[in-house]
Here is the input.
Amino acid sequence: MPKPGSKHVAPSTASVMRTGRNRLAAAVVLHEGRVLLVRRSYRERFLPGVWGVPSGKLEPGELPEDAVLRELKEETGLSGEIIGTGGERTFISQWNGVTVENRQRNFLIRPLSLAVALPEPDQEYRWVPVEELDGFGLDDHNLGTIRQSLPHRTAGPRA
Here is the structure.
């Protein structure tokens, strides 16, 4: 029972609609002890200019293994081979007043080519040595994704 002077408010349809869930897949691309990082376009509405690993939402009915290779191709032009899994990360994000629960599967990828082709002209990419990742200025989420995906959670094999 509510305290005197307080109001009990039932959840509204609007509040239910203001939450969501995403299934994501992330590619930690490793080549000769270096990890591929991509800076998002400054024109992106969500996280503009942020450095991270290629990742994105699964399409309806899509398997995470298929999604990670599709996202890698869409975001970098690269084809790759899954050589390991980095487990799953769950995190909450908020954007435009919507709270979203995200479940992200992480994969360790060996690139089948090295000719990166970014979709936006203001994007950048870098192959960063594993031992330099801590000083690169990545956010905790991307750094955690990489650490979780690398063998032994330290410097990985020269894929």
Q: What stands out?
A: Residues 18-152 form a domain with the Nucleoside Triphosphate Pyrophosphohydrolase fold (CATH 3.90.79.10). The longest strand covers residues 80-95. The chain has a mean pLDDT of 85. The chain has three helices and seven strands.
